[in-house]
Amino acid sequence: MAGLKILMMGAGGIGGYYAARLAQAGHELVLTARGDHLKALKTGGLTVDYEGEILHQALPAFSHTELMQKHEPDDFDLIVIALKSTATAPVMDEISDWLENASVPILSLQNGVDNELVIAGVVGEDRVLGGLAVRIGGHITEPGHVFAEGVAQVVMGAWPRQRPDDPRVSLLRRLEALFNAAGIPTTVSENIRYELWRKLVINNGVNPLSALTGLDTRSLTHHPEFRKIVHGMMAETVAASEADDVNLGPEDLAEMFDLISNFNAIKTSMLVDKEKGRPLELDSIAGAVLRRCERLGIEAPYTMTVSALLSHSQG
Length: 315
What we know:
Strand content: 15-25%
Low-confidence stretches: none
Distance between the termini: 52 Å
Order of helices and strands: EHEHEEEHEHEHEEHEHHHHHHH
Shape: globular
Number of strands: 10
Enzyme class: oxidoreductase
Number of helices: 13
Structural class: alpha/beta
Protein name: 2-dehydropantoate 2-reductase
Keywords: NADP, Oxidoreductase, Pantothenate biosynthesis
Function: Catalyzes the NADPH-dependent reduction of ketopantoate into pantoic acid.
EC number: 1.1.1.169
């Protein structure tokens, strides 16, 4: 099977790991980044420490402005967006003219359940693939260097749902085969919205509370009081899913709580962002839950309280 030419928009902890793994397997990768990280990628390449395995790849890296000057969207077989969800709307605004007349499919590997909607607003649903990175922790340790850990699975699917005779299915099956061959455990879901919401259950359960307390996931889920708050925020997310006609149930809550309770003791992305003084993905995680609970006319006291405290602590 022929290799892919992939644009990885956002070569941070998650995007950097997957880019390095795919490049190691022989695919052609182009990266976008900004600031000191971009400078380091240009001069020294990308170095990923994956649980002690060092992956080093010298890959083309650009700012978004440079990217649009040097490439057309259809130079790529796939665009993967691994940006923070806070960046999705401004970046899509920035590159909308560049993207809209192309045909390249776009895969989102981001936190939250609203990124695909924003992307589809620019390129249309037919070009959008929903996706999530599962059981992976990753962050930039210094410019040009990324640390990642966990099984690092990918789940992807046609967004918002797979239609009968959906032309995206053949592409998804090809991506599934190539990603697996590259050492990235990958599955295709016929109901990607369901999978995105299941991940939001975990993200809302631990991300805001970890940023508020400074504790890793294992410390939270094994603490006698905090584990109850984690469970409460996860339960509120399950209830909120009804607003999107996803309708998660008690079995999803139990499975997701068990999964995060038994996962590595990781610093959540929101905790890392808070420590580094970066914007938090609070609106796309807790905010997504609160907006939907309000629409449904139900209370979400755990999420509301933790979100309010965290917002206040940010000033």
